[in-house]
Design goal:
Structural class: alpha/beta
Mean pLDDT: 94
CATH architecture of the largest domain: 3-Layer(aba) Sandwich
Keywords: Hydrolase, Metal-binding, Zinc
Order of helices and strands: EEHEHHEEHEEHEEEEEE
Bound molecules: zinc ion
Low-confidence stretches: none
Cofactor: Zn(2+)
Helix content: 10-25%
Pfam families: AstE_AspA_cat
Protein name: Succinylglutamate desuccinylase
GO cellular component, one term: cytosol
Length: 260
């Protein structure tokens, strides 16, 4: 884990990149901004989290870091110990954590639930939508600190890194970390709430026939497993849905729960 602080004093803000080692956009964006000589009014921490997994271009080396929070300093698995270390670094910090996906090319944000944090930060970010996990995905970072996670674009793409740089700047602007004139452009953000996982049999091959965040009607075929069509039992909005992203799930089914 690489930790760099800008400014004097105990930071109340942090930016975390590459919790997943095959999502280099966060690390690259942080390196770019550390070289950019940012002019700041308030101290901030930049953290490149899973350097070991980054070196091998894998999601994790022993266990998924974003499924083992709060971690344990005495655990056998490297990422479980790292989760504990990372939480120690960012406790008390309003945090932006950068990810990327195999399912959606535009940036979107993920929070535990909509509240003052999301309301303060998210309208300033260049995001399409906000997703509320509602505690649905267990032991992820969003359950343990005030964090907005952003999915910056497609894994490994140059665009994801460019988006990550922009999102960090917007976050630092919204929190008053960056000094000087800050763009005040805000936008309305639609909010989706996760309802359930859409399971996947790791032995079968899948094709997904729907787009993320676009409503699937009851009865509509949304995927094919081997030769069999899978139809929606009830209407839903697909989130993080792709044939390749996860081993045991296609993604999530969400409801549209309002706007921010
Ligand atoms: Zn990730």
């Amino acid at each position: 884990m690489r930790v760099e602080q800008l400014g004097e004093g105990e930071p109340n803000f942090a930016v975390v990149g590459s919790i997943h080692g095959d999502e280099p956009c966060g690390a690259h964006a942080i390196e770019t901004l550390l070289d950019a000589d940012l002019s700041i009014d308030r101290p901030v921490k930049f953290i490149i989290a899973n350097e070991r997994a980054l070196d091998h271009n894998v999601r994790y080396t022993e266990t998924d870091l974003n499924r083992v929070f709060p971690g344990d300093p005495d655990a056998d698995a490297y990422e479980t110990r790292l989760a504990h270390e990372l939480l120690k670094e960012i406790r008390g910090c309003t945090t932006l954590s950068l990810h990327s996906t195999q399912s959606y090319s535009h940036p979107f944000a993920i929070v535990d639930e909509t509240g003052p944090l999301a309301e303060t930060i998210c309208p300033h970010l260049s995001i399409d939508v906000l997703v509320e996990t509602g505690g649905f995905v267990k032991n992820t970072l969003v359950g343990y600190v005030d964090v907005v996670e952003v999915e910056c674009g497609m894994q490994g793409s140059k665009q994801a890194t460019e988006n990550a740089i922009e999102l960090i700047r917007e976050f630092l602007g919204a929190t008053g970390v960056l000094s000087g004139p800050v763009e005040t452009e805000t936008s309305t953000v639609p909010v989706y709430q996760l309802q359930r996982q859409i399971p996947k049999d790791p032995e079968s091959s899948y094709a997904v026939h729907v787009d993320n965040f676009e409503r699937v009607d009851a009865g509509a075929p949304y995927a094919t497993s081997d030769e069999t069509e899978i139809r929606a039992e009830e209407p839903f909005y697909p989130v993080l849905m792709s044939s390749q992203g996860y081993e045991r799930q296609l993604g999530y089914a969400a409801d549209r729960s309002g706007t921010l």
